[in-house]
Amino acid sequence: MPKRLLLPLALLSAPLLAADMDVTVEIPRLQVAEYHRPYVAIWLEKPDQSHAADLAVWYDLKLKDKEGEKWLKDLRQWWRRSGRSLEMPVDGLSAATRAVGTHSLKFSDSRTPLQALPAGEYRLVVEAVREVGGRELLRLPFSWPPQQTETQSIQGESELGAIRLTLNP
Amino acid sequence: MNPMIKWTTLALAICLPLSAQAHRAWMLPSATVLSGDEPWITVDAAVSNDLFYFEHVPLRLQGIGDAAQAPAGGPPGMRARPTPALQIVAPDGSHASARNGSIGRYRSTFDVQLSQKGTYKLAVANSGLFASWKEKGELRRWMGSAENFAKDVPANAEDLKISQTSSRMEVFVTSGNPTESVLKPTGQGLELAPVTHPNDLFAGEAAEFVFLLDGKPAADVEISVIPGGNRYRDQLGEINASTDAQGKVSITWPQAGMYWLEAELKTDKAVAKPATERRASYSATLEVLAP
B112 forms bridges with which residues in the sheet? Predict the structure, then answer.
């Protein structure tokens, strides 16, 4: 069979192959009098902003009486799209707040949530909100599953630093 | 103006938002969208000109502080009107009680713990009769229940005009996921039957509401929506709309914030005797979030 016919076949069967997603989120160093690590929600949405899958929620898990959950609604876009219908904490989703620096997350289509993600157009959404601070929300559009290795990034201006999304077929 | 008439007019204005007086009665919740375990809200309630500032009289509510000691917006010696009851309906339909109630010079305040997940409704509803007539050339006014009407109002009064009145003031708050159970109308007076959930309102989005009179869609209800914070701007920023034949109205929120919605209907249809007209009003404080 000619090689140029094999290539489209390979592309069509891409969902059967292992695809993965690397997300890096930078928590910037801020010159403020009172600093608390931000609450951060990372999820996937469809182009109409409807919720597709949650990737991570970083919040204060250690406060007694689940006091940290009281502020989850301040991640207001995530709260509307997903958080309010969840019973926190959620295994594999809930995690502690992160320090200043760049944090890397890896997701594979062999595991939830990407395992169940239908092919289509999506946006990675990162929302951050900080106690006695501000809020920032960033989006990166992408197609799933990826046809080739691709990297995209966006730079936050206040509560978030660089967000990078790398897709590997 | 005769101070007695002025105060009477003012007192009426508070109960009857249909009048031209600008005073507005409202409840202001500390939050409407909440997360976490059994969160609390605190609610301020007042009658004022500007939204949402305490500058006139507190809203008197049964069981919230010592209402008898509080300014009522009337002159000394004026016959006290019955203090309305506050209803707090939980997502499962049970009634919750207000905590830490108190009443001050300008506002009353109380707390509510949201022990259940879902949407709560806070409501203050009133209904009765309003009569006006002339006695020795002077205008007399009366408000009260249908039972007391015959006792208090002379049957052969000159220029007797009787209206059937109802008013309802509501606030919605949600812990966790919004639920629908408290949105079910009672079937009495003018009510809001939300198509868009009242705790799912966002700036730039349109919200659809249906207004019902005695449980049936009410056409031509006048709706006024005013964003809070008007002390610090020149324009009132009022949005005016009216319901269509199906009782439906759509409001697009220009920005995030607390809004005061008022709906009014005056009709001579389906009026119970001895009244010859019907005045119904509804108001709600709604929180619109930034997307």
Answer: B41
Q: Do A76 and B36 touch (CB under 8 A)?
A: no
Of B39, B177, B290, the CB nearest to A70: B39
Instruction: Please tell me the distance in Å from A150's CA to the nearest CA on chain B.
Output: 29
Say how many domains are in chain B: 1
Q: Both tokens of residue A94? A: 């809930």
Amino acid found at A26: E
- 3 state DSSP class of B288: strand
For the stretch B192-221, pLDDT in tens is 999 999 999 999 999 999 999 999 999 999
Closest CA to B91 of B116, B123, B122, B124: B116
Q: Which of A65, A71, A84 faces B37 most closely, judged by CB atoms?
A: A65
Architecture of domain A18-168: Sandwich (2.60)
Distance CA A17, CA A83 (A): 31
Residues from chain A contacting residue B35 (CB–CB below 8 Å): 69-73, 79, 83-84
Burial of B206: CB neighbours in 10 Å, binned 0-12, 13-18, 19+: exposed
Are B282 and B263 spatial neighbours (Cβ–Cβ below 8 Å)? yes
Is the complex ipTM higher than 0.90?
no
Ranges B10-24, B146-160, B203-217, most confident: B203-217
- pTM for this one? 0.88
Amino acid identity at B143: M
Of all helices (H) and strands (E), which one includes residue A23? strand A20-27
Instruction: Please check whether residue B72 is in contact with residue B57, taking contact to mean a CB–CB distance below 8 angstroms.
Output: yes
Q: Are B261 and B224 in contact (CB under 8 A)?
A: yes
Domain extents for chain A?
18-168
pLDDT digit string (tens) for A53-94? 999 999 999 888 889 999 999 999 999 999 999 999 999 999
User: CB-based contact (8 Å) between B177 and chain A?
Assistant: yes
Residue B50, both tokens: 């500007």
Size of interface A-B (CB pairs under 8 A): 38
CB of B200 within 8 Å of a chain A CB? The answer is yes
Neighbour-count burial for B225-252, b at 16+ CB within 10 Å, e otherwise: bbbbebeeeeeeeebebebeeebebebe
